[in-house]
Amino acid sequence: MTLILLSLLGPNLCLGAPIVYWNLDMLGFSANSQFFILVESRTEDYNDTVHGASARIMIMDVAKNKCLDGGCLSVHDTQDEGKSELPKTEEAQLRSVYSKTWRLRKKRKLTPPKIGYTTEGPFFEENNCKSAYYLFQDQQIGVTLQQNIVPYKYARKASVQLEVNRENISKTIDSIENYRDNAQGYQLGRLFVSPNQKNMAILIHVSYYNSESKSVDVRTLVQTAKFF
After folding, report:
1. Does the CA dihedral 77-78-82-87 come out positive or negative?
2. Prediction pTM value
3. Dihedral angle computed from the Cα positions of residues 103, 105, 107 and 111, in that order, rounded to the nearest 10 degrees
4. Cβ contact 38:29 at 8 Å
5. Which residue ranges in the chain fall short of pLDDT 50?
6. Contacts made by residues 165-170, CB under 8 angstroms, sequence distance 24+
7. Rounded (to 5) percent helix, strand, coil in the chain
């Protein structure tokens, strides 16, 4: 059986549009392993004169797989070089989300976060990006991604559900009934284990179609859970 290892898997390349990836700036668990943070940013050129800088932050309650109140923010600024005001850079947008969440991050012991343990993988079977396994301390963790895409005339929506298996015990994360507007599809990314080895965070790469730039925007979704 042929296996493929992809450390960062983007969207389906047959989508037929330019792909814009976000730049990862920070990720990791809190000192007590109860929370997980991910921060990413990007700059996109809409045309020769108009550019947009964005930043996103997600602070997750690992056990609930939900954003903390005030912990998931995004900022976006589109500037025309023909105008007098200076455009905001990625660095400025990152400073904005960090500033707005400073107290929350400090309270949740995320200043700075701890990586914990990075698993090996995902390992995919050839031509199959929906099922993969990860290796952690010689143990195999299997993850199957199910998604449902509902096409609309102007915008799609899509849902995702993960089935995680470890030592013949399974766990479901998220729900196939939980749709995200404008999502085009999902693919598995890296899996991290918390410092206390009791929690996990799986990165999911979500593709969105940007009608302004006619490109595919690849953002990171964090899915968290306690281990079995």
Report:
1. positive
2. 0.86
3. -110
4. no
5. 1-16, 81-82, 84
6. 165/141, 166/139, 166/140, 166/141, 166/142, 166/227, 166/228, 167/139, 167/228, 169/228
7. 10, 60, 30
